[in-house]
């Protein structure tokens, strides 16, 4: 994507070259309160979505895992325990504030031996070809400026036979749920952001970026266009969230 071409930042149209900076502003702003806001906004359900993701990823002892847009490290923590001392997890995120919160959290819970922290953009992953058995990106892809380039970059660093799991907000599967969800995310979310984190704007971006993200079938098609095979998705919470999976041939 050319840096002058137009993309979106929530409902706002911005130049592609400006989006990363705007997204960075959001995550620098929310980093300190990210975990508590996640629990409050989802009623703790994000933990179930993430647990499901780990089970679907099925990490095995000794495997190499990349958790892109890993933020405060929820998935990395569980992967680290599952791959054991002979395995390795890279927690990669573009944002230094999110990475710092994640690293402190994992160190404080005594998890350190098999994790590396890397500041990296999902579009331009700084790893060798064919490096990882499994890659995850949880609630990260919708923030990336060029999702197609990011998917190609993930495919490049996956080992043949390796799997990618994309956990992301998606399209609710019933009109009633969509209406309820709209009310919640456009009214209540920014209010919670204002009261708890003194930051209504970031939480408005969250709601808007979810609406701009491709729906289930579109994202599956994008993964196939990037070169992933055996792609599938599973809806959770009525399609509020979907877990996409694909493999490198
Ligand atoms: C909503 S948080 C998700 C964090 C974590 N994966 C989780 O599920 O709790 C989104 C993360 O994506 C990161 N991010 C945004 N754009 C990115 C990019 N282009 N490359 C890598 N990470 C990115 C942000 O810095 C942020 O930490």
TrEMBL record:
**Pathway(s) this gene product operates in, as recorded in its UniProt entry:** Quinol/quinone metabolism; menaquinone biosynthesis; menaquinol from 1,4-dihydroxy-2-naphthoate: step 2/2; Cofactor biosynthesis; ubiquinone biosynthesis
Q: Where does S-adenosyl-L-methionine bind?
A: 72, 93, 121-122
* Catalytic reaction list: a 2-demethylmenaquinol + S-adenosyl-L-methionine = a menaquinol + S-adenosyl-L-homocysteine + H(+); a 2-methoxy-6-(all-trans-polyprenyl)benzene-1,4-diol + S-adenosyl-L-methionine = a 5-methoxy-2-methyl-3-(all-trans-polyprenyl)benzene-1,4-diol + S-adenosyl-L-homocysteine + H(+)
| Keyword DNA damage on entry | no
Q: Which UniProt keywords apply?
A: Menaquinone biosynthesis, Methyltransferase, S-adenosyl-L-methionine, Transferase, Ubiquinone biosynthesis
Please give the Gene3D superfamilies that the UniProt record associates with this protein: Vaccinia Virus protein VP39 (3.40.50.150)
Q: Which PROSITE patterns match?
A: SAM_MT_UBIE, UBIE_1, UBIE_2
**The protein's enzyme class:** transferase
Q: Which HAMAP family match?
A: MenG_UbiE_methyltr
Q: What is this protein called in UniProt?
A: Ubiquinone/menaquinone biosynthesis C-methyltransferase UbiE
Q: Which organism is it from?
A: Marinagarivorans cellulosilyticus
